[in-house]
Amino acid sequence: MAKDRPLQFSVDRSSPVPLYFQLSQQLEAAIERGELAPGSLLGNEIELAGRLGLSRPTVRQAIQSLVDKGLLVRRRGVGTQVVHSQVKRPLELSSLYDDLEAAGQRPATRVLRHTAEPAGAEAAAALGVPEGAEVVLVERLRLAHGEPMAHLRNHLPAGLLDLDGGALEETGLYRLMRAAGITLHSARQSVGARAATAEEGERLAEPVGAPLLTMERTTFDDTGRAVEFGSHVYRASRYAFEFQLLVRP
Amino acid sequence: MAKDRPLQFSVDRSSPVPLYFQLSQQLEAAIERGELAPGSLLGNEIELAGRLGLSRPTVRQAIQSLVDKGLLVRRRGVGTQVVHSQVKRPLELSSLYDDLEAAGQRPATRVLRHTAEPAGAEAAAALGVPEGAEVVLVERLRLAHGEPMAHLRNHLPAGLLDLDGGALEETGLYRLMRAAGITLHSARQSVGARAATAEEGERLAEPVGAPLLTMERTTFDDTGRAVEFGSHVYRASRYAFEFQLLVRP
DNA sequence: GAGGTCTGATTGTCCGGACATAAGGTGGGG
DNA sequence: CCCCACCTTATGTCCGGACAATCAGACCTC
C-alpha cells in the first residue's frame, strides 16, 4: 500500500494559514490534478502525521474537511480513499451571474427598474417586514451572448445595502452583498415551471405559452435576518439548473 | 449571560452512542422545541464541558455538527448562538415518495414497466456501461390523492439490485437501495422545463404544450459507481421543488 | 473445500492541556 | 467629546496520548 510515494506534502509553520487548511488544500489540489488516483488509499493517518510532523488530530481535521466536500471517503479498518465520481460543484448559493461567468458565457445585465416601493404581501412576508413598509425593488434582465436568459426581480429590506446602478450591471447581487459585509447563511428556494404570459414572452423573446423555469428564493444572513427575496424567471429553452448534491451520512 | 439555566443536558457513558452525538441530539431537540431561543448564547464551551463532565473537544464536536447543519453560528470572542431563521430541510437526496409522504399526501405508485433492456446512448454514458449493455429499466407513475404527479423513468445497472414489483409500488427507489446495503454518496442533477408532448400530456392528465418540470439525475454510491440514472417529468401545475440550502463558510 | 475464527491494520472516539486570535467593552489620553 | 490602547472573554488551532470498533485477510477446523 505504501509502495509508491509520488507526492510530498509540506506545511509552513510560520504561515498564519492553519496547518490543517494548508494540508487539505494540498490534498485537494493533488486530487484535482489526478496525482491521487480515484479509489487509491491515502495512507494511514498516523504515518501521514508523522511524515509531516503534525499531530493526528490536525491531519484528521484536514481529511475531514475533504470528506465533507465529498472528495474522500473513510472506512474504518480499511482506510481513506479518493472518491471515484466526478465531484464538481456541490450546489452552492451562487448567483446566475457567477454561473454564467464560470461557463464562459460573458453575462450582461440590464437594470430595468431600481426603486423604493411599499412591500406587497408576498415580499413583506418573505422579508419579515410589515406590509406596505418600504423595500428596495430591483428588476434586471440577464443576457448571455446578447440573448435574454432570465428576468430577475429582487426585493431587499430598505437601508440594507447601498446599491449602485453601475455595479448592478457588472456583477451579481450576492457578490455586492458579501462585499458590503453581509454574511450569507442560508436560503429557502422553490423551483417550478409555468407558461409564459404575453409580457414575459416579450421580455424574454419567447412565444406566449412557452415553458419557463421559475425560482423563488429568500436568503438569510447569519443573524437570521432575511436579506433578499427574489422571483426569477428563466427561459427553459436556454437554461437549466445543474448541481451536485451530497448525501449527509 | 449565564443568568438563566433553563435546561440541563446529560450524557450516558455506558451507552454505545458517542458522547458528542448524544449531546448534539439533545441540543438539537432543545432548539427544535424552542427551549433554546433563537439568538441566545449557548454559554461557553469550557463551562459546558465542565458541567457535563466532558472534555472540550467532545463538546466542540457536538456543537460543530450543529453548525454544519446550519442550526448554530459561532463567533470568535462572542460565543455560539442559535440561528434565527427557520431552518427546515437542507436539500437532501430524497425520493419524491418520501417528499410526498412527509407532506401527508399519501403517495401511490403504478409500475408501468419493469424490464431488462440494452442501454441507450444517454443511459449508457450516465451509468458508465457500454452502449447496448443490458440495464434494468423501470417506469413508474407517481400519484397523490389519486391524481398523477410525475412520470419517473429509471435506469439501473444490471444485477445491482433485485427489484420486487410489489416493493416498488409501496416505497421509493432510494429506500430500496439503502435497504440493499448500497451507500448513496452523491448525485448530479439537472432541473429544467419543457412543454408536454401528446404522450406525456395523456399520462399526466395535462393538455399538450402544458409546462412540465423535468429532472435528470445520476446517483453514485461511495465507491464512485453510478447506481441509477433517472429522467423524471413532473406536472408543474401540481409540484415544485422546495429546499433549503446552506452557504459553505 | 467450506465454514467460522483469530489477528493485524485503520479509523472512531475521547481526554486534558496549551497558546493564538478576534470581538467587545473599558478606561485613559488627546 | 472622540479616539485609541488595553483587558476580558470566547472561540480557533494544535498537541500527544489512549482505548474501542470495524474491516479484510489469513488461518484453522470440520
Structure overview:
In chain A, 28% of the residues lie in helices and 33% in strands. In chain A, the strands form 2 sheets. Chain A has a 6-stranded antiparallel beta sheet with strand order 3-4-5-8-7-6. Chain A has a two-stranded antiparallel ribbon with strand order 1-2. Chain A contains 8 helices and 9 strands. Chain A has helices at residues 19-32, 45-52, 56-68, 96-102, 121-127, 165-170, 173-179, 198-204; strands at 72-75, 79-82, 107-118, 134-144, 147-157, 184-195, 211-221, 226-235, 241-246. Residues 1-6 of chain A have low confidence and may be disordered. In chain A, helix 1 (19-32) crosses helix 3 and helix 2 (45-52) packs across helix 3. Chain A is an alpha+beta fold. Chain A starts with 18 loop residues before the first helix and ends with a strand. The first copy, chain A, is elongated, with a radius of gyration of 23 Å. Chain A has 2 domains: 19-82, Orthogonal Bundle (Arc Repressor Mutant, subunit A); 96-235, Chorismate lyase (3-Layer(aba) Sandwich). In chain A, strand 7 (211-221) and strand 8 (226-235) form a beta hairpin. The interface between A and B is large, with 49 and 49 residues. Strand 9 of chain A pairs antiparallel with strand 6 of chain B, so a sheet runs across the interface. Chain A binds a DNA duplex (30 and 30 nucleotides) through helix 3.
